[in-house]
Structure formats: structure tokens, C-alpha cells
Amino acid sequence: MGISRREFLKRTATIAGTTLLGSSAIAHAYEKGGPSIFSTGNTANRKNWKIWVERKEARVPPPEEPYTVLVDTTKCIGCRRCEWACNEWNKNPNRPIKEFEASVHQEKSVFDKVRRTHAGEFTVVNRYISSKDGKPIYVKKQCMHCEEPGCLSSCFVDSFKKTPEGSVLHNPAVCIGCRYCMIACPFDIPAYEYYEALNPQVTKCTMCYDRITEGGVPACVEICTAEALRFGKMSELINLAHERIRNNPGKYVDHVYGEHEVGGTSWLYLSSVPFDEIGLRTDIGKTPIPKTSKGFLFAVKMFEIVGAWPLVFGAYYAISKARKKVKASHETSVQKGEGHGEKH
Amino acid sequence: MAKSTNTWFREKILLGMTPRDYIISNFNVPNLIAAIFLSAGVGVMIYRLLFGLGPTTNLSDNYPWGLWIGFDILVGIALAAPGLTLGTAVHLFGMKEYHHFARPAILSSLLGYVFAIYALMFDLGRYYRVPYLIGGSWGFTSILFLIGWHFFLYTIICLIEWSPALFEWLNLRKLREFFTKMAVWATIFGVIIAGGHQSALGGLYLVAPAKLHPLWYSTLLPVFFLLSAVFAGISMVIVEGTITHRVFRRQLKHFDPAEYDSRTIGLGMAAASALFIYFILKIFDIAHYNNWAYLNTPYGYWYLVEILGFVLLPALLFTSAVRNRNAKLVRFTGFLTAFGVILNRLNVCIIAYNWYLPTSQKYYPLWSEVALSLGVVTIIVLFYRFIVNRMAILYEHPEYESAH
């Protein structure tokens, strides 16, 4: 890590403290979320994009099948080691692993609030209370790596890529920082370095593209000892998910979240209670996000390329006709010996 | 040489006054207020450039777009539609009787677009990369890409439409002739381009079906934005006309109040038609998605305020005013309609967005966001006044025959 969290906070505070808004801005930011929203200078996205470009140029053949991670929320114990491992691997601000593991036993813990991803946090674990037995359910949240990503289609400088391995990658080198991807994402994943003045980036989980292309598994999957996370080929994991539902009657809701949501995602979830009770939205539909704007874009292009021409020529015709008329009336008025009394 | 430039500067920029007199003449209350807004706005701009969006705004990962997109872009561009509506009516449909309105309308469109883009630079994280959009990395599947290009093209179009006034002021006869001819073509392309991006601004939210409240979300969003831009444009012509005719009265030597009132009423009629079509489509929209149940919720009441108070009411008022030839009521309703469009854009961008979040997590603008937006509005007003005081915008240049 380039700078420690302590030093980072100190530096931020010094910068902000020298200004009028200073202390209130920091307090305000803390209200908005933890210190991870202050994170700047992310390198993981840039690094992974570079790997993708290198692989493309080297014409590395794509895998037979895209990779997938299956999250079995009934198995998660809420140790948050995946968060720690993610921060560690992606060089995000981190704390000792003990602090992460302690949350599950603390009376007052990070679990009290439902969290989301931030600039320095690609994944978070949230706690929900089961409507079935009142026990806690821990749900990991990260980029779902959609088959047809909304972020990709919404980006006006084409800075996203869905790789054949399954990862959705972001290229900070062309990003202008409009944050439209954050509007388009149905899972609220892309985050933004709001506290970077000159070079703020959009940051997101890469499904550890740099690990899976080397034959490894994502950092979060590797560290998970509860077997809540499983990495593998897409078809195998979809089969496994349905198998688990079949073999454990009554344990799971009969639905694999992510199999069809917004056109399918590369992360799949199993749950014992309806998915909207554990923070996974069920109202997002099966239509891929890019499809919602496709029809309109087509209509505009058709209008501007095909429909516009009759308009242009029609107008030209009308104008030239009007001009001739003025000329003609001018000539007749001259013939009659009257002045040209044109008025507007 | 130095002396001649000096005279030119005095005549063209200082309105024929000496620098001393000019500065003294500008000491007055409106300018003082403008100076306060301006310095607050510029202060926030500098602060934003130095410290980033985090300390300057209330934006968060849940609310990536706030007041600067909602007001400066969505509202700003809708209210900058006068050039579209009036330019089309005069240049394309040949409604020459409205040509007195055309130049002010085009000027306000030009300023609206230029400064909307200027304000956008403070919202974009890496504003210095904007050229990437024009040449470099193209995201063809993005509606924002379409908007970016259309803004770029439309600003050029507005510049061409406005340039005859500039060349009259600079006394460049040949260039003025050339650009007057170009202006007609620019208007034709302008209709296509402006129609495209006004609707695309609504289209932006098509990708967020799960985030925008069902009453505001619709596949017809682009149509709603285009239609409301039409009546926003017309009502802004009425609003601007009302203000400019009061403030710049001395410029209007051949001013005919009866003629002006009858034109205003004509504009009211056009706005009423657009408002009625919009209202009917909105009702169809609720019926199509079967959203009636949502009307009886807090968001539903707010929706009704917007749709009854700022669409149906102005439509009825315009109709009544046109029937009774009441120009005063048309002017009042113009203000009401413009306000309604502001409300609609802010509803879509801020209030109906992430509607399911509890109130404590909802976005509200920080004072600095408001200050920057007000600062930009002040800049627009000052530029408008600067140009109207110097160029033939409200009247016809005595040395040039009418271009119409």
C-alpha cells in the first residue's frame, strides 16, 4: 500500500482543514459512509485493463466458457475475510484482518447499517435477519458482472469491456468522470473517487481478472473457508445451484438469482428467504439494461439519417418558392410603377 | 493606431463612454447583487477545481447526479429551447410576423447551451478529457454520447444563427451576408439536432427503470422531454419578452404594444396546444402502465402537483387567456409553465430518482452547489445584457435591411 489509512486521513484533513468548508466537509463525508469513500488513486482497474489489452494483442484464446461465482448465502458466516482479501489484493485501504473478523461478534458493528461499495471498497458483506427463523443472513455484495452490462452500454467513451472470462472491466484511462455508469447500474456497484480533485476514477470489482487469467480464483473466493463462495465454469455452477435446491427441499427459495436477472449475470446467488429480503432487488426484471435504450437510439438515428432529408429538401423547396414569389411580385409592382413596399 | 483602437473600444464596448464614466454608470443595485452571486459562484468553482466534488457537493455513490446535472443541464437545456421553437417557426414555417422574437430567442439558446456546457465542466470529474468524446473513444451505445455530440453541434448551429448580429455590430457586411444565408440552413439542421437531444435528455433515464419512480419512468420519457421542451421554449420566449421589454424599453423605438400583445397571445395558443398534448399523453402513460395505485401515495400527490398544477392549470389558463385576448394572463402563465418545467426536470433527476431510499439517505444540494448554479445563471444574464446593449437583438439594425 502506498500510504497508510492513518496518513491518508491525516493528509485529507490537512488539505480540507486549510479551507473554509474543511472540518464540516469531513464530518459530512463520514455521515455519508465510512473512510473508504475517501479513497483515491485506485490502481486495480487500470492494472486489469492493461492485462486485458495485453491478452488481446497477444491473441490469447478465450476460455471455453466464461467463469462464474456462486454465492450460497446460507453458508456465509459473516467473517468479512473476503472484504479484507479484496482490499489487500486490489491495494485498497485496509485494516488488520482481526478487525474484520470481529464484526460478527460485536454488539455494535458495521453490520448495523446496510452498506454499499465505495471508491476503496469493491465488496461488502451485509447482514439481514431471516424472516424464516430470525437468524442473521450474511450477503456479500460486489459487481455482478452482467452478461449485458448497463455500465458498458451507458458509457459515452466506451470505457467498459465484458471479457470472455466473464469479468466486466473498466478503463480509467479514457473515463471522463460523467458517472452515468453509476446511474445505469441496476446493482449500484460502480463507485467514484469523490475526494480526488484532479484525477478521480470510477472503481469497481474486476472479478480479479488478474488472478483468473493466471489460472487462479478471485481473492475473495480463495480466502472463503465457509464454502459460501465457489468459482467455476458457468454451466457447471448453474447446474450445481439447481442441484442444491433440488437436494435440499425447503432450504432454498427455488430461484437462482443472477441466472436471468437483467439478462443474466456472472455471479449467482442462493438464498433461504426471498431475495428482496436480503438486499437483492427482484424488481429489476429480466431485460438487459442496454435494451432499454436501444430502441430509442435506433429511432433517433433513423430520424436523423432518413427522416431528416425530406425535411431539409422540403424546407429548401419552400424557401426557394417563397423567394420566386417575392421576385415575381416585385416585378409586377415595378411594372405597375409602384414602389416596392415590402413589409414585415 | 493606438488612438483608433481606443475609439473602437470606447464605441463598441463602453457604449461611447469614457472608461471612467462607464465604470461609474455600472455602480447600481442590480449590479451589486450580480457581483455577490458571481463572486460566490466563482468561489465555489475554484474550490471545486482545487478540492474535487466530495467536499463541494452532496453527491454520493448513490446519487452520482445532483443539482448540477438536474438544474444546469436538464433544466438549462429545456429552457434554452426558444431558439428551437422560434427559429423553426420563423425560418422554417415562414411565420414572419414572429421574427422580432427570433433574435432574442436564438441569443438565449446560444447562451443557454454555452453556459450549460460550462457548468457541466465542473460536474465532470476529468473535464480536461472532454475532447475524447469528439475524437477518440466513441461509445456508440450510450445516449450520453448522442447528447454530447448534439450539444457540440447545436452550439455551433446557435453560433451561426446568432452571428449575423455579431457581424452587424462589427460592421463586416460580407461576412454578415454569408452567415445570414447560412443561418437558414443552420436552422433546418438545428431542428433535427435539437429535437434529437431534447428527447435524448429524457432518454438518459431509460436505463434506470428500477431507480426512477414508476410514475415518472416511462418508455415515453424522450417524448415527454421533447414535448415539454417545446412548451418550455415557447413560455421562455414569453418570459424573456416580458422582462426585456421592461428592462430594455428605450431600445424599442418602433414598439407597438397592441401588435406585441397579439403576438404574445399567439405564443400562448401554441404553448396551450403543446401542454394539452403532453397532459393527455401523461394520462395515457399512467393508464398504460396501470400506475393508478401509485397516485394515492406521497410520491403520487407530488406527481399530481406537477401534472395538475403545472401542466393542466397552465394549459387551461393559456386557453382562457387566448379566448379573452388577455396578454397579461398569457405572460403570467408563461412564468408558471417555465416553473413547471423546472419542477419536472428536478423531479426526474433528484426527487423521483432512488425514490425507495429513506428520506435520511436522499440527496439534497449543498449550499455550494446552489451557489455555483446561481453564479452560472448570473453569468448568463450578464452576457445577455452585454450583448443586447451592444448588438441589434431587440431591434433591426438601421444600416442593414431586414434579413427576413
Features:
heterodimer, A: 344 residues, alpha+beta, Alpha-Beta Plaits, two-stranded antiparallel ribbon, 11 helices, 11% strand, elongated, B: 404 residues, mainly alpha, Formate dehydrogenase/DMSO reductase fold, 72% helix
The CATH class of the largest domain in chain A: Alpha Beta
Distance between the terminal alpha carbons of chain B, to the nearest Å? 38 Å
How many helices of chain A? The count is 11
Instruction: Give, in spatial order, the strands making up the sheet with the most strands of chain A.
Output: 8-1-9
How would you explain this protein's 3D organization?
The complex is a heterodimer of chains A (344) and B (404). By secondary structure, chain A is α+β, with helices and mostly antiparallel strands. Chain A folds into 2 domains: 33-240, Alpha-Beta Plaits, CATH 3.30.70; 289-344, no CATH class. Helix content of chain A is 39%, strand content 11%. Chain A is built from 11 helices and 9 strands. In chain A, strands 8-1-9 form a 3-stranded mixed sheet, with helices on one face. The radius of gyration of chain A is 28 Å and the shape is elongated. Chain B is mostly helical and 404 residues long. Chain B has one domain (41-390): Up-down Bundle (Formate dehydrogenase/DMSO reductase fold), CATH 1.20.1630. Chain B contains 15 helices and no strands. The longest helix of chain B has 33 residues, at 257-289.
Short description:
The complex is a heterodimer of chains A (344) and B (404). With 344 residues, chain A is α+β, with helices and mostly antiparallel strands.
